Every structure is written in C-alpha cells, then in structure tokens.
Amino acid sequence: xxxxxxxxxxxxxxxxxxxxxxxxxxxxxxxxxxxxxxxxxxxxxxxxxxxxxxxxxxxxxxxxxxxxxxxxxxxxxxxxxxxxxxxxxxxxxxxxxxxxxxxxxxxxxxxxxxxxxxxxxxxxxx
Length: 126
Description:
Elements: E1 10-13, H1 29-35, E2 39-45, H2 53-63, H3 69-86, H4 92-102, E3 105-109, H5 120-123
Parallel strand pairs: 1-2
Antiparallel strand pairs: 2-3
Helix pairs in contact: 2-3, 3-4
C-alpha cells in the first residue's frame, strides 16, 4: 500500500537523532523527507553523536518563536564556536563534544525561506 502524500509542507528538526541526516542514497530518510515528505528545511546529524549541543540549542532557539529555523541553526553554531574560541567548557569531555558537534550537523533546504513556528509573529514584541 503506497503512502498518502502529505497535506502540507513542514520542517524537520532532529535534535537528538544521530545519523538521520546522513545522506547515502536516493531513498534514505533525509532525501525521502525532502522530496516526498514535503519537508522545506531539515536540521540533523550526519555522524553519530553523544553530545547534541547544536541540535538541542537549535531546537530551544527555534521553539522560543523569535527566530526562524535557519536563524536558530546559525545562532546555535555561533554559540558553539564562541564557546570553543573562549575556552568556555567545563572539562575535556565537554570540549571534545563541542568539537565533535561542530562537524556533525547539517542544514538542508533553502535558507531564504523564513520558516517559523505557527503563531510566532504574534508572540514577538513589536
């Protein structure tokens, strides 16, 4: 039985889901989501990770409704780079996690598309 076509477009933010964004074939998870699944933007890990700084920071920033998904992803990466540049980590494990996370996430989609949570504009101060 074939899958029913999705009713509307969407984003996929796979904050704690290792390898979900690992593109290896035309029918893998990320390509299916972007083509058949009508996913406009997709953020995820393409390497196994144990740390999750970029994924979870992106999720928190996006969930507050003040930023688009691409702005949230960019800001999460900037925060990670700032922590690395300033030595703002608790121990060697955290530093290793930040370094790993820096190179383990990806953003798929058109960054010019302003994807926000429904009702986010109403929650933002004028």
